[in-house]
Specification:
By secondary structure, the protein is an all-alpha fold. It is built from two helices and no strands. Helix 1 runs antiparallel to helix 2. The longest helix is centred in the N-terminal third of the chain and has 34 residues. The chain is rod-shaped, with a radius of gyration of 18 Å. The protein starts with 6 loop residues before the first helix and ends with a helix.
Length: 76
């Protein structure tokens, strides 16, 4: 073990985690809206297909969130 971390190192880790979470949330929202736009804004999808599109949009947004957090924290 390298020993205890300094306050600066702890602060840097906190900032990096918050940055990862905020950018991931913004990306997830954008991906969700991009996938769900036909069902939400254009009314191009109706019925059971609309439910499927919204489910796919949720899954795509969640996947984008996890991947973004992982990539940012791995880089750090």
């Amino acid at each position: 073990m390298r020993g205890p971390r300094t306050q600066g190192q702890r602060d840097a880790a906190t900032v990096e985690i918050v940055y990862a979470a905020v950018t991931a949330a913004l990306l997830a929202g954008a991906v969700f809206l991009a996938v769900a736009a036909p069902a939400l804004f254009i009314d191009a999808v109706r019925g059971d297909a609309r439910v499927g599109v919204l489910t796919a949009a949720k899954a795509a947004g969640a996947t984008a969130f996890v991947i973004r957090v992982a990539l940012v924290l791995r880089r750090w």
